[in-house]
Amino acid sequence: MRFQNGGLLTLPLLAWGCTILGAAVATGASPADLQARADRYVDAVREFADTALEHGRDVYGPKRTPLFVDGLDVESREPVKWKTRGQEWILANLASQQNLWRTLDALTSLTDQAEYREAAAAAARYGFEHLQHPNGLLHWGGHTSYDAAADQVVTEAKQHELKCHYPYYKFMWKVDPQATGRLIEAFWNAHILDWANLDMNRHGDYRRPFETPWDNTYEGGPVFFRGKGLTFVNTGSDLFYAGTMLHKLSGQEEPLTWAKRMGHRYVETRNPKTGLGGYQYSRLARGDRAEMQFGAEFGERVLEGMLLVPIEWSRIKFARAGTCQLLLSELLGPEGDDFRRWGSEDLKAYASHAYDPAKNTFAALITDGTKLSPADVKRDGYYGPKGSSNFQPQPAGPLFFRAYALAFRLSGDRAFYDTARSIGRGNGLGNLGPDPDKPALDGDIRCSDPAVIVGLLDLYRKTKCADYLEYACQVADNILTERFRGGLFAEGPDYRFARLDRHEPLALLHLVAAIRDSTIPVPMYWPNQAFFACDYDGKGRQCDRELIYQQRRQTTRSSDR
User: Fold this and answer.
1) Lower Cβ count inside 10 Å, N or C end of the chain?
2) What is the mean pLDDT of the chain?
3) Which of 456, 480, 473, 475 is nearest to 33 (CA)?
């Protein structure tokens, strides 16, 4: 297979302690202690995987399939249910289980217990055999799922949508290369509306017949053209990720060519003064929503592709899509220099113009550098009501720590380390110190986010300083204390439901691989965020990430008994 270690991360086995001017600087833990902790992390992930296999498989409805349900009640182990149109769906959404597949695959690599990888492969195989549309698309994603209770596909308006899902195509290729290749080609075919300028939409049409995509003609042209689709970077990054993966898997050059064309469309949105690029590269012919809301004050300085709002939009643009580009560059080697340059430039420009290290916040701004506040929101609109708090500076979260740590590892640019260090301090990591080669943590580690583990491993790989392993272990210990209960990972100890697709177990296995051995392959840790959004009875249109997985378990105080 031409796909050489694609989608896998092999961590180097490095000396224990930091070699600085010939001297070994002691870490907080001995190699033996780190190995013991690695064993503990494997045991926790194995417990999670066993729980998923025992309680998370499809045993509902007339059929018993090898599919997994999306989530479980932490205490009862009952599956998550979506109530709509008087029905109760038990969601078994393949797109919402890609981290689960990566975890099961990695666990088999680390334990030699084949049943974990086999369970993921059985789910993928069933998906291709029963849930692949004749045009090549899978019935999965943001608005389409499989209902394990009724054994049928359920959907909102028959729309295909992937937004920063970054599926585990390498694994799917091993299960069925022909079906995987057709899926990726169908993804491009269903979402591209005009190949000449790459007008595309986040929603793909299941009714669109399959056509080979790569023989189309690209012309380019100005960005911010008036088109038919919404060229959001969350779907755009999934498209250029998929094209790049097909290139690595099949050896075809055309998918990579189109992937880079897609990536460069976002580069073309950059303001020449600031280097800041936008969330999309077109505007709807029927009207640009940012222009409608802000045009009276700013004119065409504010289009949807020029507005950076520091809630989910900017997080997607820089922490998710930016990290995706950096990881693709690492996957490709020299072929990926464009992705590395684009991702690094985006992150540097965003930190320079939007980040306040004293407060660890990103500001809302226009790509020309103009900062915005709630007072600039003069009327209700797509971006929130008049005076919307969406335009207040927002905290830079753990995903940004990982993004800037990765950018530092790949570039060696100390500015990225400085930003990562500041963001880490703002997320309970403490102060790593000014020199990445001589970390001297000031303060306790209070964070429990898996992205921080992976960011620390990026610093470890760059500096060869094992202190970062100790810091990562402290974050991992916090995860097991605060987020792991009953064999499941959730947002916290009092959360009612747990997704099976969470990042914690995969991050723990990355840490184990770093501690244990250089030859153990672990699937890459992608900044993905699966979701399902649809009408929910009595609540209108909802997203499972907020409606279901943010629910707290009600507790009775002793004084109320």
Assistant:
1) C
2) 93
3) 473
